[in-house]
């Protein structure tokens, strides 16, 4: 018998042909190769996906750039920057995520860009922060911006954008923490959509053209810390629901048309640092409980129609309050001595109210006080202890820089202690204050005094010769004083001591036989050009200074402002403008019920014209003092004639 043959297991069935077995082996090998190839290619598939997404971001940025222009001095887009030749994650203003290389932030603030915001910006689907502030973007904000669902910061302030805010920006961007579109031209109503922006920390809609009332939706923003609604056309009351903003630190609604009373529930805002309601139409009294917001540092209720007494007594706890502006209201009664309980006060302004009674001596305890403004009230002084009046007490305020007490029936004398004011004092405004007696020699100790106004008082005697030592004084105005008869005939006596005439800036004459050559207290900008070039003094120079002060009053700009450089002075700037109303201080043009706007503008134009004619370059071209007085009286009559219309 022959030897038995053992076949392999794969071929154990002799009925399978050998050719078929070979094909099966080849098929299996091909499958293995395909599997291996798939495993090798698989890591590349996500990379291809990333490349596609990155191309989307790059295309969106290129489309955004195509809608803007910029001047030749803008270098951020120069060279290879913002070019497809470089990685867009390295472009100026662009930030990307590390792993996916997707655009997460775009910051092109302060670049000087003009143009519109492309709707393609919505394709930056990973964008968390968008800051295009302080440029010149115009047109509408594309509604596609609501597709940026990851957006947390949207900052578009200080541009020229207009139209309405996309209605669904809060609904579709629920993570939004900062929305700042201030200083643009946006308009429309403040939608209730803001109650969907529950994560908002900062909301600034100020200085646009929004109208209507303050939406109750704001009361839902329980995380909100900063709320800016000032400079719009908002009307209606302050909704009490605002007191729900328990985390609020700053609340601004200045320069609107808000009326009604101040909600007493605001005391619940125990994290509040700044509260600014100035320049509205608020009425009623000031809730005392506001002063018990212990965190409050600045409170401005100026330029409203608030009335009643100052609600300050032993129950207040305002130790952190630094700024208190209540000017231009109808607040009456006395200034409470308890004001000094607000021991950290730096700035106090109660001007233009109906306050009466003595100025409390306790104000001298405000050791950090820098500015005290009490102009235009009915404040007086007790007739006894004139040498120890409130002025003496205020010398304890070692940081005091500005003291304004003009247009009050003070009936005081200037104490010798005035020389004890600290070197920080820069301005004393005490015109038309029924100040009697002589000017003490000690006033010359105020070496850094830049402005002294004692005009329209009942001062007698001569101006101390020591005024010449006050080198820092720009303007020492002592006009319309009642001088002793023997000193009214001339400016100077035999001892070369200067005196005040019917109208003039104080002058100290040097020892020179030519009485027109003087050493003048003043500074460039206020004094006439001929003073600096020739040292010549005349009443025409006084007219020039008066004109400059008129221009300063209307524009609220000083002739020494940084914007006036080279040949461009304040007078040249004003004279070059066709529409003079452009430079009038905004507060003087406020729209009020019953105000005749045309009459207001006419009066302001008259004052500007008088200022320009008084400040002519050549002395002979300036008005004579008699003409000035006549025009001032005419303007005064116009003001009185329109007083009932709110002017």
Automatic annotation (TrEMBL):
Top-level taxon? Eukaryota
State if Membrane is listed as a keyword: yes
Task: Name one molecular function that GO assigns to this entry.
Answer: ATP binding
Record Pfam families: LRR_1 (PF00560), LRR_8 (PF13855), LRRNT_2 (PF08263), Pkinase (PF00069)
Keywords carried by this UniProt record: Leucine-rich repeat, Membrane, Repeat, Signal, Transmembrane, Transmembrane helix
Please list the residue ranges annotated as the Protein kinase domain.
275-640
UniProt topology in membrane: Single-pass membrane protein
Entry-linked InterPro entries = DNA_repair-toleration (IPR053211), Kinase-like_dom_sf (IPR011009), Leu-rich_rpt (IPR001611), LRR_dom_sf (IPR032675), LRR_N_plant-typ (IPR013210), Prot_kinase_dom (IPR000719)
Tell me which GO cellular component terms the UniProt record holds: membrane
Q: Where would you find this protein in the cell?
A: Membrane
This one is known as Protein kinase domain-containing protein
């Amino acid at each position: 018998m022959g030897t038995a043959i053992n076949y392999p297991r794969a071929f154990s069935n002799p009925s399978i042909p050998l050719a078929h077995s070979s094909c099966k082996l080849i098929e299996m090998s091909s499958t293995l190769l395909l599997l291996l190839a798939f495993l090798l290619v698989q890591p590349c598939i996500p990379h291809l996906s990333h490349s596609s997404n990155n191309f989307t971001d790059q295309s969106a940025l290129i489309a955004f750039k195509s809608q803007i222009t910029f001047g030749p001095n803008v270098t951020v887009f120069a060279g290879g920057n913002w070019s497809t030749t470089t990685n867009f994650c390295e472009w100026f203003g662009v930030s990307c995520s590390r792993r996916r290389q997707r655009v997460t932030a775009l910051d092109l603030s302060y670049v000087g860009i003009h143009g519109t915001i492309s709707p393609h910006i919505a394709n930056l689907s990973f964008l968390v922060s968008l800051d295009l502030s302080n440029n010149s973007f115009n047109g509408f904000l594309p509604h596609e911006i609501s597709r940026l669902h990851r957006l947390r910061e949207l900052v578009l302030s200080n541009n020229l954008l207009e139209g309405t805010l996309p209605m669904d920006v809060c609904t579709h961007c629920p993570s939004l923490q900062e929305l700042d579109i201030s200083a643009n031209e946006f308009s429309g109503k403040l939608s209730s959509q803001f109650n969907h922006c529950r994560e908002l920390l900062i909301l600034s809609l100020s200085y646009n053209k929004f109208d209507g009332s303050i939406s109750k939706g704001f009361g839902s923003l329980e995380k909100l810390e900063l709320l800016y609604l000032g400079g719009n056309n908002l009307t209606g009351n302050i909704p009490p629901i605002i007191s729900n903003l328990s985390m609020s630190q700053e609340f601004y609604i200045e320069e609107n048309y808000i009326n009604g009373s101040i909600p007493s529930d605001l005391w619940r805002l125990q994290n509040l640092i700044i509260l600014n309601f100035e320049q509205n139409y608020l009425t009623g009294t000031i809730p005392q409980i506001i002063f018990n917001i212990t965190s409050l540092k600045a409170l401005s209720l100026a330029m409203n129609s608030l009335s009643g007494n100052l609600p300050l007594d032993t129950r207040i706890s305002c130790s952190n309050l630094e700024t208190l502006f209540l000017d231009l209201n109808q607040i009456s009664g006395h200034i409470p001595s308890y004001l000094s309980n607000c021991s950290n006060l730096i700035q106090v302004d109660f001007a233009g109210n109906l306050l009466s009674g003595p100025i409390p001596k306790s104000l001298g305890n405000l050791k950090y006080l820098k500015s005290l403004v009490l102009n235009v009230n009915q404040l007086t002084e007790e007739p006894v202890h004139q040498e120890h009046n409130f002025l003496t007490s205020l010398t304890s305020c070692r940081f005091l820089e500005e003291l304004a007490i003009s247009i009050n029936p003070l009936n005081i004398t200037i104490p010798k202690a005035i020389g004890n004011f600290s070197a920080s004092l820069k301005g004393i405004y005490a015109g038309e204050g029924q100040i009697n007696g002589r000017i003490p020699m000690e006033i010359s100790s105020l070496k850094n005094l830049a402005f002294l106004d004692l005009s329209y008082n009942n001062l007698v005697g001569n101006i101390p010769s020591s005024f010449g030592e006050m080198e820092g004084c720009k303007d020492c105005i002592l006009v319309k004083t009642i001088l002793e008869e023997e000193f009214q005939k001339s400016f100077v006596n035999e001892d070369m001591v200067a005196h005040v005439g019917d109208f003039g800036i104080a002058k100290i004459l040097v020892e020179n036989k030519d009485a027109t050559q003087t050493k003048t207290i003043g500074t460039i900008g206020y004094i006439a050009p001929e003073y600096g070039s020739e040292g010549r003094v005349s009443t025409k120079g006084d007219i020039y200074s008066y004109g400059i002060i008129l221009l300063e009053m209307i524009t609220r700009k000083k002739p020494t402002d940084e914007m006036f450089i080279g040949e461009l002075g304040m007078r040249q700037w004003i004279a070059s403008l066709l529409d003079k109303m452009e430079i009038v201080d905004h507060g003087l043009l406020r729209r009020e019920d019953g105000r005749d706007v045309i009459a207001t503008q006419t009066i302001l134009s008259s004052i500007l014209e008088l200022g320009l004619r008084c400040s002519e370059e050549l002395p002979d071209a300036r008005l004579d003092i008699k003409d000035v007085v006549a025009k001032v009286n005419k303007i005064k009559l116009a003001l009185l004639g329109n007083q009932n219309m709110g002017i």
